[in-house]
Automatic annotation (TrEMBL):
<comment type="similarity">
    <text>Belongs to the kynureninase family.</text>
</comment>
<dbReference type="GO" id="GO:0019441">
    <property type="term" value="P:L-tryptophan catabolic process to kynurenine"/>
</dbReference>
<keyword id="KW-0662">Pyridine nucleotide biosynthesis</keyword>
<dbReference type="GO" id="GO:0043420">
    <property type="term" value="P:anthranilate metabolic process"/>
</dbReference>
<dbReference type="Pfam" id="PF22580">
    <property type="entry name" value="KYNU_C"/>
</dbReference>
<dbReference type="InterPro" id="IPR015422">
    <property type="entry name" value="PyrdxlP-dep_Trfase_small"/>
</dbReference>
<comment type="pathway">
    <text>Amino-acid degradation; L-kynurenine degradation; L-alanine and anthranilate from L-kynurenine: step 1/1.</text>
</comment>
<dbReference type="InterPro" id="IPR010111">
    <property type="entry name" value="Kynureninase"/>
</dbReference>
<dbReference type="GO" id="GO:0005737">
    <property type="term" value="C:cytoplasm"/>
</dbReference>
<comment type="subunit">
    <text>Homodimer.</text>
</comment>
<keyword id="KW-0032">Aminotransferase</keyword>
<keyword id="KW-0378">Hydrolase</keyword>
<comment type="pathway">
    <text>Cofactor biosynthesis; NAD(+) biosynthesis; quinolinate from L-kynurenine: step 2/3.</text>
</comment>
<dbReference type="InterPro" id="IPR000653">
    <property type="entry name" value="DegT/StrS_aminotransferase"/>
</dbReference>
<protein>
    <recommendedName>
        <fullName>Kynureninase</fullName>
        <ecNumber>3.7.1.3</ecNumber>
    </recommendedName>
</protein>
<dbReference type="InterPro" id="IPR015421">
    <property type="entry name" value="PyrdxlP-dep_Trfase_major"/>
</dbReference>
<feature type="region of interest" description="Disordered">
    <location>
        <begin position="1"/>
        <end position="20"/>
    </location>
</feature>
């Protein structure tokens, strides 16, 4: 419980500490090569707003997205109408592969022709996992971990039931994530597929994808990576790391907006061996022949099922454009500085506050968010939202500080954590 009694005395050490961190933040902001990107986002129009620390769940909208959505309504949609699907310099029919390639080049380390944008992460995960199983007939096990995002666990449980497969669970430490050694111990000659997240949604742990791909392949299995929490924040090298299939969302660090479509990747060598389960007309070779029977389109296009979500892809293109311009390595450098600053501030808090850092302290193993824990953080998070500080709460006791590098300043981190310390010192119920 929060110690309500502490509010009676002024915490002078807070004033001193926040002054020091404010000076450090000012220096970092002044030297930040990505500082100009803060202006690329639609400003929050709310009195008393302090800072948004949930870019790892829903990224902020870019000004370009707002402008380009308006242009779409007036131009390609409003004026060119149905012709936009097939005519002009950038026909909508080609957007799944085109935007997929843009994401691949900016932040997946993947050559063109292996990525499409479609569906939601959940649906694409289902399609990719089912597709992978078609390339490993006779094997009846899927390896996954206990702390993966719920949708991953549920989708795989459903597939196991549908396809008569068994699930082999890796017990993941919720304060870290899955280690390659655990995968090595779990896979065997029955394993068809290994499915894990690159960055753990709870702790922010970065899994060693090249090592996990290697141990999966050593057992003859395929490896599918969920990149939701890494894409646009942590460099990814799908081709070089030997990842077979990948999925990720575009509404976090890529700024695609609520419900934006997902992306799916199938490495080129595998594309002819797999068959995804939802045979729709948009994934058929030459859809407008509308002929009998389904013949999959060549290559990655066959992962598409229905009409591409064009409106949803407009903000994705704007966000990916920003990431491409800023460069994923520069984004990662700022991300490490932001999360290090957040941890240093939390470490400076009095022990009596009882806050623990639940993310890896090693920056090389930590993604774009920092999770801190305390028993009453559900109430503290609600109090922070009322005071204009917006992180998120994940059960049982974690507040995630999602520090999107392009839209978060170092001063934001200091201001937000200052409010958090005050809330905890005075009590979440205090005015
Ligand atoms: C790791 C991970 N996988 C999947 C999802 C969700 O997928 P969807 O966009 O289908 O809700 C999320 C976030 O919502 C996530 O963090
Ligand atoms: N996709 C979300 C939604 O539709 C509503 C609220 C949150 C989300 C999220 O993205 C959750 C997020 N993937 C997480 O890591 O918790």
């Amino acid at each position: 419980m929060i110690d309500e009694g502490r509010g009676a005395t002024e915490d002078t050490s807070q004033t001193q500490d926040s002054g020091e961190f404010a000076r450090r933040a000012a220096e970092l902001d002044a030297a930040d090569p990505l500082a100009s990107y803060l202006e690329e986002f639609v400003p929050v129009d709310e009195p008393g707003f302090v800072a948004y620390l949930d870019g790892n769940s829903l990224g902020r909208p870019t000004r370009r997205a707002a402008a380009e959505l308006g242009e779409l309504v007036r131009g390609a949609w409003g004026t060119d109408l149905i012709r936009s699907w097939t005519d002009g310099a950038d026909p909508w029919m080609e957007w799944p592969e085109r935007v997929g390639d843009e994401i691949a080049a900016a932040c997946l380390g993947a050559a063109a022709g292996q990525t499409v944008v479609a569906d939601s992460t959940t649906v694409l995960l289902y399609k990719l996992a089912r597709a992978a199983l078609t390339a490993r007939p006779g094997r009846d096990e899927i390896v996954l971990d206990t702390d993966n995002f719920p949708t991953d666990r549920y989708v795989l449980e459903g597939i196991a039931g549908e396809c008569g497969m068994s699930l082999r669970w890796i017990d993941a430490d919720p304060r870290e994530g899955v280690h390659a050694e655990q995968v090595a111990a779990a896979v065997g000659d029955r394993t068809a597929l290994v499915v894990l997240s690159h960055v753990a949604y709870r702790s922010g742990w970065i899994a060693d994808l090249p090592a996990i791909a290697a141990v999966s392949h050593g057992a003859g299995a395929l490896f599918l990576a969920d990149l939701c929490h890494s894409v646009g924040a942590v460099p990814v090298e799908l081709d070089a790391w030997g990842v077979d299939l990948a999925v990720g969302c575009t509404y976090k660090f890529l700024g695609g907006g609520p419900g934006a479509p997902a992306f799916g990747y199938i490495c080129r060598d595998l594309q002819d061996q797999v068959r995804q389960p939802i045979q729709g007309w948009m994934g058929r070779a030459d859809p407008f022949t509308m002929g009998p029977g389904y013949q999959p389109a060549a290559g990655i296009r066959s992962l598409v099922s229905g009409t591409p979500p064009i409106v949803g892809m407009v903000p994705v293109r704007a966000g990916v454009g920003l990431v491409a311009r800023a460069g994923i390595d520069a984004i990662r450098c700022k991300s490490i500085e932001l999360t290090t600053l957040a941890i240093d501030i939390v470490d400076s808090w009095p022990d009596a506050l009882g806050v623990r850092v639940s993310s890896p302290r090693d920056a090389a193993r930590r993604g774009g968010h920092v999770t801190i824990s305390r028993g009453d953080f559900r109430q503290v998070n609600a109090a922070l939202w009322q005071r204009g500080v917006i992180p998120d709460f994940r059960a049982p006791d974690g507040i995630r500080l999602g520090l999107a590098p392009l839209s978060t300043s170092y001063a934001d981190v200091v201001r937000a954590l200052d409010v958090a310390r005050t809330v905890m010192t005075r009590g979440a119920g205090a005015p």
